[in-house]
Write a sequence for this structure.
């Protein structure tokens, strides 16, 4: 299996259906809003995808905008938050310095090798007292204590995830962002099954965890296929949201 990155232009067509849908999006949005300062007037949702979370970041007096680099994702988002989306690389936002009160990055930093650049850009566009809210340690939230976890854990623990809480906190500090209390939320409908984990393994979802040689991939697939209850979802993940406040 090649060391691949998901094609989010193609993923857009079925992204919501395969990622927990509205229940997971609502849980994520509620958690983000709980960390947004009461007086905030603007929030930028980075890598907003189809806008399923973005459209739920609703609060009186808070203007919410979405940014994504994938055309197909952004088309879907534009239907949910019309007039409030922009195609942009999260490392190079089309905004002046100190432009917004909050930046959210839900399920983004674990996907990229340039998390420090995203954190730096978020710090640049935040006003003093503004907050960056981001999911951290995403992989560690999945399949905790399950039989799937027992098989995948050695590969997960051997890597340094780009969204590791310690690393993200260090990146934030380097750009004038101080840690603030965070929170957790449930990944409704995201409990994995062995059969679906094998599908994701072969599709490249875990390519960054190991070199991905064919023999290794097939050995993991065989171990997962041998598990009982191939279509029974294991427990839902519990995601961690970290928050960082821009120094005044």
């Amino acid at each position: 299996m090649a060391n691949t990155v998901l094609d989010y232009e193609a993923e857009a067509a079925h992204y919501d259906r395969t990622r927990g849908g509205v229940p997971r999006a609502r849980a994520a949005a509620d958690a983000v809003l709980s960390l947004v300062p009461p007086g905030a007037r603007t929030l930028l949702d980075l890598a907003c995808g189809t806008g399923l979370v973005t459209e739920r970041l609703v609060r009186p007096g808070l203007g919410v905008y979405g940014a994504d680099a994938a055309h197909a994702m952004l088309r879907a988002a534009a239907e949910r938050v019309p007039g409030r989306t922009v195609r942009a690389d999260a490392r190079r936002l089309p905004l002046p310095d100190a432009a917004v009160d909050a930046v959210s990055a839900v399920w983004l930093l674990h996907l990229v090798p340039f998390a420090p650049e995203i954190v730096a850009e978020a710090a640049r566009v935040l006003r003093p007292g503004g907050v960056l809210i981001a999911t951290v340690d995403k992989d560690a939230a999945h399949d905790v204590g399950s039989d799937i976890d027992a098989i995948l854990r050695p590969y997960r623990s051997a890597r340094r995830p780009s969204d590791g809480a310690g690393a993200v906190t260090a990146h934030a500090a380097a750009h004038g962002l101080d840690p603030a209390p965070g929170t957790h939320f449930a990944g409704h409908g995201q409990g994995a099954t062995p059969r679906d984990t094998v599908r994701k393994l072969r599709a490249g979802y875990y390519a960054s965890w190991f070199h991905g040689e064919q023999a290794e991939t097939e050995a993991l697939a065989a171990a997962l296929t041998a598990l009982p209850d191939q279509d029974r979802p294991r427990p839902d993940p519990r995601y961690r949201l970290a928050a960082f406040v821009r120094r005044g």
In short: The chain is about 35% helix and 20% strand. The longest helix spans residues 21-35. Strands lie at 42-46, 63-68, 85-87, 100-105, 126-136, 177-186, 238-246. The chain has one domain: 8-142+162-190+237-246.
